[in-house]
């Protein structure tokens, strides 16, 4: 058991028969009434995000998540195959569990597969990935209004807004949390 006063971003907990990851938290001490902790949690089974408030000092179960390093191999119908880099065991995950991650996954990429008591929960991507631009409009010389952007599609099929100087064939570093452009690779 862990106190909600000890919350940290990234901590995994058991609440209401679910496995949750703490995305954000805030300790609130109102002038009148008891202190509480306001948190934003992601359900690791469904991917749903929920805001939840706990009384200060309340205890919740700490969930021990196992992370195995695996390599993404290929898509097979409605599932995707990953291989353990040490034992060469293969694991298939349904496409429905990977809706966000598929925007950034490319073959032979190494990721961490999360499991809880033998149940596979999902894929943890690195914070950033480098992907090649496959399609974008050329930037127009002189069109340099501050903060101007254009759409670009990368090799995985994901489309994001990038600065005007990005061209087809460029490598981009993309933040996997929100899918935003970080820099050229």
TrEMBL record:
Which SMART domains does the entry link to?
A: EFP, Elong-fact-P_C
Task: Describe which pathway this protein belongs to, using the record's wording.
Answer: Protein biosynthesis; polypeptide chain elongation
Which is a Pfam family this sequence falls into? EFP
Record's GO cellular component terms: cytosol
> What does the protein in this record do?
Involved in peptide bond synthesis. Stimulates efficient translation and peptide-bond synthesis on native or reconstituted 70S ribosomes in vitro. Probably functions indirectly by altering the affinity of the ribosome for aminoacyl-tRNA, thus increasing their reactivity as acceptors for peptidyl transferase.
* PANTHER family in UniProt: ELONGATION FACTOR P, ELONGATION FACTOR P (EF-P) FAMILY PROTEIN
Family listed: Belongs to the elongation factor P family.
Name listed for the protein in its UniProt record: Elongation factor P
Query: In which organism is this protein found?
Result: Macrococcus brunensis
**Species classification:** Bacteria, Bacillati, Bacillota, Bacilli, Bacillales
């Amino acid at each position: 058991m862990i106190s909600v006063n000890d919350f940290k971003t990234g901590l995994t907990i058991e609440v209401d028969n679910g496995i949750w990851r703490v995305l954000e938290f805030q300790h609130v001490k109102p002038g009148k009434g008891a202190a509480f902790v306001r948190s934003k949690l992601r359900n690791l089974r469904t991917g749903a995000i929920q805001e939840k408030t706990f009384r200060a000092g309340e205890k919740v179960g700490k969930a021990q998540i196992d992370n195995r390093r695996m390599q993404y191999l290929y898509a097979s119908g409605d599932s995707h195959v990953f291989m353990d880099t040490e034992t060469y065991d293969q694991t298939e995950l349904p496409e429905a569990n990977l809706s966000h991650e598929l925007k950034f996954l490319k073959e032979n990429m190494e990721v961490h597969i999360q499991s809880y008591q033998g149940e596979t929960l999902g894929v943890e991507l690195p914070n950033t990935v480098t992907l090649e631009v496959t399609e974008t409009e050329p930037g127009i010389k002189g069109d340099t209004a501050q903060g101007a952007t254009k759409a670009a599609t990368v090799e995985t099929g994901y489309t994001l807004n990038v600065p005007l100087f990005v061209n087809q064939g460029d490598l981009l570093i993309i933040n996997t949390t929100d899918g935003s452009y970080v820099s050229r690779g």
